[in-house]
Write a structure and sequence with these properties.
9 helices
Length: 194
C-alpha cells in the first residue's frame, strides 16, 4: 500500500482524479481477492476524498459510509480515525452538522487512544468549527482552546498554516462571545488537514 499511496498522491497533486479513481477501484478488487479488508477500506477512504474534492458529495458519503462499516470491526485505529474524520467533513459539506459531531468525536477518541496529539488537535478544531456553524460559541471556544493546548503540547512550529488558522479562529470566537452582534460566519476558517 505505501507505493500505491505515493502514486495516488502524485495523481492527486496533478489533479488526475479519474486515473486515481480507476487505479483505486482496481486496487479494491485485488485487496478483496486476498481478503485485505483494511486496505479495501483505506482505498475507499481515498475514493471518498477524491469525490469530496470534486464535489461529488453523494458518492463521497456513500463510499465513506461503506469504508466506515468495514473498519468498525477491524483493528486499524489510525485508518478508522481518518475515515471518521473524513466522514464528518463530508457531513459538514452537506450541512448535516449534528450528524458530523459523533464522527469527529469518534476520531478524537481514537486519536487520544493511540497518542496522535496532532490528530486530537485537528479533531477538536473540526468540532469547534461545527459548534460555530450551529451557533454554540461557548462549545466552540472550549474546543479551540483545547486544540491550541494540544498543538502546544506537540511542539509544532507556530508558523504552520493550520496553527495560525486555529489561533485566528480562536480569537474570532472570543471576539464573538464579547460582542454578540458580531457576525463571524464569513471570517471563520474551516480546519484543513495537515
Amino acid at each position: 500500500m505505501p507505493k500505491l499511496r505515493q502514486y495516488l498522491e502524485c495523481l492527486k497533486h496533478a489533479r488526475q482524479y479519474s486515473k486515481a479513481l480507476k487505479t483505486l477501484h482496481k486496487a479494491i478488487e485485488m485487496f478483496k481477492l486476498i481478503e485485505d479488508f483494511p486496505d479495501v477500506a483505506h482505498s475507499m477512504l481515498y475514493i471518498a476524498q477524491i469525490y469530496r474534492r470534486t464535489s461529488r458529495l453523494t458518492e463521497a458519503l456513500d463510499t465513506i459510509s461503506k469504508a466506515n462499516d468495514i473498519m468498525e470491526h477491524l483493528d486499524n485505529r489510525a485508518i478508522y480515525s481518518r475515515i471518521n474524520r473524513t466522514y464528518g467533513n463530508i457531513l459538514v459539506d452537506l450541512n448535516r452538522h449534528t450528524e458530523a459531531i459523533p464522527k469527529f468525536e469518534k476520531a478524537l477518541l481514537i486519536d487520544q487512544g493511540i497518542g496522535r496529539i496532532l490528530g486530537v488537535a485537528y479533531n477538536l478544531q473540526n468540532l469547534g468549527y461545527v459548534y460555530v456553524c450551529r451557533g454554540d460559541y461557548q462549545g466552540a471556544l472550549v474546543a479551540y482552546v483545547a486544540a491550541m493546548e494540544k498543538v502546544q503540547e506537540s511542539g509544532q512550529d507556530a508558523s504552520k498554516p493550520q496553527i495560525h488558522r486555529c489561533r485566528k479562529n480562536l480569537d474570532l470566537i472570543k471576539r464573538k462571545i464579547d460582542d454578540e452582534t458580531m457576525d463571524i460566519s464569513m471570517l471563520i476558517e474551516r480546519p484543513k488537514a495537515k
